[in-house]
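Tutorial, part two.
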Amino acid sequence: PRSTAGVDAKFTFNGLETTRASNTFTINGFEVSLKQKTDSPVTFSSSTDTDKVLDSVVEFVNDYNEMIEKLNSKIKEKQFKSFHPLSAEEKADMKEKEIELWEEKAKSGTLKGDPALSSMLNNLRSIMSSTVTSTDKDGKEINISLKDLGIETTSNYLDNGKLTINEDTLRAKISENPNAIYDLIGKSNTDPKKGGIAQQYRTELQDAQKKITVKAGSSTAVNDTFALGRSLKNMDKQIERFESKLKMMESRYWKQFNAMEQAIQRANSQSAQLMSSLGGGM
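Running the prediction step on this input gives:
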């Protein structure tokens, strides 16, 4: 049988004659499948999946709340200063469960008041209350914030900046102007400070991570490359110097002890000789 060469699909889109190599293609974000020839105009439109957008925003806010709750618990965690790190000798005299409970207390409060985490939390709260430039449904420039969407800080100060959502307000705002919602949360910009909240949020976390790495290093870092590592190295050197001094002191004391012992022996010998002489003279 004779084969027939394929022909590109031809159509007119918004007055512009267009061709595609396949009958199924994407144009302006729409996936289009051409089924049959027609001379009549075809109109198609889209609508916002409000539920999907709402779920994404709620998930973003919940993740934020969960993170600041964990961070706040760390920078406010109680310290137990009487629970020092256990030595190998101390562990040898303890049961495994006792060691576990002790070390849990010893590690508690390690990040209490940590300046890097505290600064990051303050910056994140500021980002969540900031405004982003967008446009309303008529194309007029506006400033929009999470508060405009029904997302606000809880009234309970013990929540330390957690957000609460009025889903009815959020749903209405999504239906009214979905592009503004995208600009507020998802917009990207070469200058992160001009991007959406998610980009600012991500940038702040990355900056905080860099600061923490400079101070505490990473799993692959060597001690010379971060502050705590250099401190540990200096402490090791101080311990070595102290141990060296102890050995020198020990050696000096042994020499003094030996000299004193020899002096006592000589004194005893001289005393014996003296007593012998005195006894012999009588």
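Residues 11 and 39 are 10 Å apart (CA to CA). In part three we will examine how such features are distributed along the chain.
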